[in-house]
Amino acid sequence: MNGLRRFVPLACAAALLLPGTVPAAADEAPARKAFRVCQDPNNLPFSSVKGDGYENRIAELFARELGLPVEYYSFPQRLAFIRNTLRYKLPGEDYRCDIVMGVPAGFDQVSATKPYYRSTYALVFAKGRGMDTVTSADDFLKLDAQRLARLRIGIYDRTPASQWLAKHELVDRAVPYPIMNPDPDQYPGEILEKDLAAGKIDAAIVWGPIAGYFAKRVRAPELVVVPLASEPGVRFDYPMAMGVRYGERAWKEQIEVLIDKHRGEIAAILRDYGVPLLDNDRAQGPRQ
Fold first, then answer.
1. pLDDT, tens digit, for every residue of 123-142?
2. Ramachandran bin of 235, using left for φ above 0, alpha for ψ from -120 to 50, beta for the remaining angles
């Protein structure tokens, strides 16, 4: 999931859920003239004002199926994102948009659909900088003690990454980044594309879609992505859904039909963006 700034989801996911009030049931909307998406304009790999995120591609897929044009209402995904997008309506006007393409399953500020993918946090490091033998969290923890003691590990604050470092007594190795940044030009992948690639940090633990996408985008050095399994006390994997307004049952059911019908195409889009995918029913490791 990351309002939430992803995602680190809205990355990061349920670990970042903010309390929200459930609005009263709404009347069903009239026939739709467009597939209207609430999006962050600068939040790749999820969405962008250019329409080149994977949520944009899935929105286009659904819109084609419904025979509708896609329209976007953009607002930075910070605090109050849902209130300023999906729920935003002035007297005498219609809502600005009708669906958020990526929310943690069970996110209570929206009526969440069934999940359409599950991903996990990932460890990312540059190849050729002393960690090439690492293929799992256990491998990382078994690195030479002196090597571990020198590492600078970038994490977004208040995410499972900080819990994991605390559990394994590596908190003093953390280089924390704020999960919500007032700069509209900031994007979650900067931690990898700029700081990790430049050697300002030695490794990073970020939400899997961010890890996979920016590891593909960075040409040099080569970045290695190691998906992390949940373990007792630290949950890394989360299912992701879509969100509509409460009370719009028919719309939600229509979206869920599209999710089921196009699961193969959705998975192909996600793989194209480097998203680490887990089985939706059998995630790796215990769920805590």
1. 999 999 999 999 999 999 99
2. beta
Condensed to tens digits (0 to 9), the pLDDT of residues 199-249 reads 999 999 999 999 999 999 999 999 999 999 999 999 999 999 999 999 999
pLDDT for the residue numbered 286:
38
Token output for 227: 């998906």
* DSSP conformation letters of 85-128: TTT---TTS--S-SEEEEEETT-TTSEE---SEEEEEEEEEETT
Burial status of residue 86 (CB atoms within 10 A of its CB: 0-12, 13-18, 19 or more):
buried
Residue 130's region, left for phi above 0, alpha for psi from -120 to 50, else beta, is left
Instruction: Enter the pTM of the model.
Output: 0.88
User: What does the block give as tokens for 121?
Assistant: 């946090």
Q: How far apart are CA 169 and CA 278, in angstroms?
A: 28
CA distance 84 to 26: 17
CA distance 127 to 223: 6
Question: Is the separation of the CB atoms in 158 and 2 below 8 Å?
Answer: no
Both structure tokens of 72: 């976007």
Backbone angles phi, psi at 24, to 5 degrees: -65, 155
